[in-house]
Design brief:
By secondary structure, the protein is α+β, with helices and mostly antiparallel strands. It is about 45% helix and about 15% strand. It is globular.
């Protein structure tokens, strides 16, 4: 994969889709924080050319730049099936420092929220973020906006509730009832 092409493709996806309000998402963008993160240069897009996905996740976390909000590790989706890529990220989430959280995107694993395909559709991506920052953003969206109103239970479980439950198990968050997670 040509690194410049990949970076441009991912930036175009972020600019043309991720940051644009969508009527099916209550006129909110798929990621309400992406535009500001881009403007503030808080996003790093990396195309690792050596090592496994797990190795690259570990290396990124070990050398984390606190000036960033998120790092995207972008891979050729032909190297891993969607199922395998998701399993790698799930296993890595179990193994990493709980102050970080990983989310995955693969063209084979369609993420549909209220009729909107959230995937980039072209690459396999690991999103690495600080757990606390992501949780604060989630809390704001949950309590101050209608962002999650169009998400069904499966969407919430896949993207939000699993990480909240993981944090409670690690006692990073206070224990809440299941309804407190997102409802």
């Amino acid at each position: 994969m040509d690194k410049n092409t990949v970076i441009n493709d991912v930036k175009t996806w972020i600019d043309d889709f991720v940051t644009k309000p969508n009527p099916l998402l209550n006129n909110m963008p798929p990621c309400p924080y992406a535009k500001q993160a881009i403007l503030d240069k808080k996003i790093d897009i990396q195309i690792p050319d050596e090592g496994s996905v797990s190795y690259n996740i570990t290396k990124t976390i070990e050398t984390w730049n606190e000036d960033l909000d998120i790092v995207l590790l972008v891979y050729d989706p032909k190297k891993h099936t969607g199922e395998l890529f998701e399993k790698i990220v799930i296993n890595a989430n179990d193994a990493i420092d709980k102050s970080f959280v990983l989310l995955d995107d693969h063209p084979d694993n369609v993420e549909n929220i209220n009729g909107v395909h959230m995937n980039n559709g072209k690459y396999a991506i690991v999103f690495i973020q600080r757990t606390k920052k992501l949780q604060e953003a989630h809390e704001y969206l949950k309590t101050k906006t209608n962002y999650y109103d169009v998400w069904n239970k499966e969407n919430l479980d896949d993207v939000v509730n699993w990480r909240l439950n993981r944090l409670k198990e690690e006692e990073i968050l206070p224990h809440q009832s299941q309804e407190d997670n997102i409802l």
